[in-house]
Structure formats: structure tokens, C-alpha cells
């Protein structure tokens, strides 16, 4: 009888331990446009790293949605259908969601280069001033904040769905397509296989404070704090910088920034809040170490706490 009672309590304890473990494990839901996940392995890796180093037991579940736009994913986050997303900074996203104030790619997303057709390549290579660059009409995604930033700085901008931008460039709907420097090097082989007349300019760069940020629902302060703590731990241990430098596209972009002489034109990010402008320097790429030719100064980034 004692053996039976002992066995009963062992079973109960095991059941309770299993239930506790299950309760401690939570799935973090994300959504992403179908077919693009492979191009953003670095960014997903940042979120996974934050969750791993946060001391919690979270698991990421990424659903790929056919035809999903950033706007649709934002609405899903607002409705609570997903738990987290990452997106290019916008004042609207910052106000609607909780923004983790650590830029995912250290600001390299705001280092914009241009892809053009070969018949416009020489004209772009001859650009030496910001006003000359403004003579080119720039193609951007329909929901990219870059369009507003460039328009506010006097550029002609043509918007279109991300999936249509290369065809729009091919059909001369605009003069040059803007991509972040690491995106351009990552995408160029596949793009040239489909559009062999497209080339990447290596003489001009437009720079403004900008990056991907992680966003969670405003009601989910616990998840916001978890991700924030995880990223701070990643910086403390060096894991973040290791992940950053080991990403092939970023490593290629950093090498290009160091070795290629470009005309670098700094413009203001007119849509960025003071809170985001004042994110700690240590979380941004130190452009002064990379650029030798600039028309204007880089904004002074001061150092607020990383907690709300």
C-alpha cells in the first residue's frame, strides 16, 4: 500500500512539473510576407537572441502570409493576433506600439545606395552634390517610411508595392531604386539574374538616422521588457556584435563602406521623434569611422535610458 501511495505522489509531482514547464513556455507569434523570411535571417536572429538571453522560455512561431503588407502585419499586432514584429521606424508605429529602443541593424538601414539601369549609371556616377542627386526620381516601397523622409528633403519619390519595384525600375517609372547598403549587396545577384540591365551604383550614398525596430502591442509591457533586457544582455556579453559582424550581407556592406570612396550626403530624418533620435550612441553604427566625404554633419545622438 505504501508503494502505491509513493507511486501516486511521484506521478502527481511529475505531472505538476510538466504542467509548470508548459506554463513557463510561451509561443511568440509573428507574421511575415511569404517568401521573404530567408532574406531577413539576421533580423529574426536578433529577436531570437534577445529571447534566448532574456532568461525566459519563449519560442518564436513565424507564419508566412501570401501577399501580406507591412500595414496588414501592423493591424494584426494591434489586434493581438501576433505578439511582435519588426519594421522600419515610423512615428506612427512608435505611437501605436511599444518600440524596443535598440536599432536592429545599428542604423545601417539608413545608409541608402541606389540601383539603376545601365543607361542611367553614368549620370548617377557623375553626381557630386546633394542638389544633383535630387534630380533623380527615387523608387521606394508603398509603406516604406523612406519615401516621406526623402520627400521632406526635396526628392522626387515614386512609390509602389515592394514586389513591383524592380519591374517599375525596368520600365523607367523612376530613375533609381533605393536600398540599404547591406540589402543591395544581398539582393544584387538574384536581381541581376532577372534584370541583367540593373547595376548597383558605388559612388553615391544617402545617409539618415533610420533602422528596423522591434514592436510589441502596447498592452504587452512584459514582452517589451523581456526583449529589451535580452538585447541589453546581448550587448553586454558581446553576442550582439558577434551576430552583427558575422552576417554575410552586413560584413560585405561594412567592407564596402570602408574601402569604396563615395559621395556621402547626410539628410535629416524629419519623421523621427526626439526619443528615438536620442537613443544611446553605442547602439548605432559609428559612421565617422567609415565615411570620409560628407556634405553635412551627423546628428548628435545623446544617451537616454533604455526603459520606458
From TrEMBL:
> What SUPFAM superfamilies does UniProt report for this protein, alphabetically?
Periplasmic binding protein-like II (SSF53850)
Which segment of the chain is annotated as a signal peptide? 1-23
* Alphabetized UniProt keyword annotations: Signal
Question: Could you name the domain of life of the organism this protein comes from?
Answer: Bacteria
The protein's name is: Solute-binding protein family 3/N-terminal domain-containing protein
Amino acid at each position: 500500500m505504501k508503494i502505491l501511495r509513493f507511486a501516486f505522489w511521484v506521478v502527481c509531482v511529475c505531472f505538476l512539473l510538466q504542467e509548470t514547464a508548459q506554463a513557463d513556455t510561451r509561443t511568440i507569434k509573428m507574421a511575415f510576407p511569404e517568401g521573404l523570411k530567408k532574406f531577413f535571417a539576421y533580423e529574426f536572429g536578433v529577436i531570437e537572441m534577445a529571447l534566448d538571453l532574456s532568461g525566459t522560455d519563449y519560442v518564436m512561431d513565424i507564419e508566412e502570409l501570401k501577399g501580406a503588407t507591412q500595414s496588414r502585419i501592423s493591424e494584426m499586432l494591434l489586434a493581438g493576433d501576433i505578439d511582435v514584429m519588426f519594421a522600419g521606424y515610423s512615428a506612427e508605429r512608435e505611437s501605436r506600439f511599444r518600440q524596443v529602443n535598440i536599432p536592429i541593424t545599428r542604423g545601417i538601414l539608413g545608409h541608402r545606395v541606389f540601383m539603376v539601369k545601365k543607361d542611367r549609371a553614368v549620370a548617377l556616377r557623375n553626381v557630386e552634390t546633394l542638389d544633383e542627386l535630387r534630380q533623380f526620381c527615387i523608387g521606394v516601397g508603398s509603406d516604406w517610411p523612406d519615401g516621406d523622409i526623402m520627400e521632406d528633403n526635396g526628392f522626387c519619390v515614386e512609390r509602389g508595392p515592394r514586389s513591383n519595384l524592380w519591374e517599375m525600375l525596368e520600365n523607367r517609372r523612376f530613375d533609381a531604386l533605393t536600398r540599404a547598403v547591406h540589402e543591395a549587396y544581398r539582393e544584387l545577384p538574384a536581381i541581376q539574374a532577372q534584370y541583367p540591365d540593373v547595376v548597383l551604383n558605388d559612388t553615391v550614398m544617402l545617409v539618415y538616422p533610420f533602422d528596423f525596430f522591434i514592436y510589441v502591442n502596447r498592452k504587452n509591457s512584459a514582452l517589451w521588457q523581456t526583449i529589451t533586457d535580452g538585447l541589453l544582455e546581448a550587448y553586454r556579453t558581446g553576442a550582439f556584435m558577434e551576430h552583427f559582424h558575422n552576417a554575410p550581407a552586413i560584413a560585405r556592406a561594412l567592407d564596402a563602406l570602408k574601402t569604396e570612396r563615395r559621395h556621402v550626403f547626410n539628410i535629416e530624418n524629419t519623421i523621427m521623434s526626439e526619443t528615438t533620435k536620442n537613443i544611446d550612441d553605442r547602439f548605432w553604427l559609428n559612421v565617422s569611422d567609415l565615411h570620409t566625404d560628407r556634405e553635412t554633419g551627423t546628428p548628435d545622438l545623446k544617451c537616454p535610458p533604455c526603459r520606458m
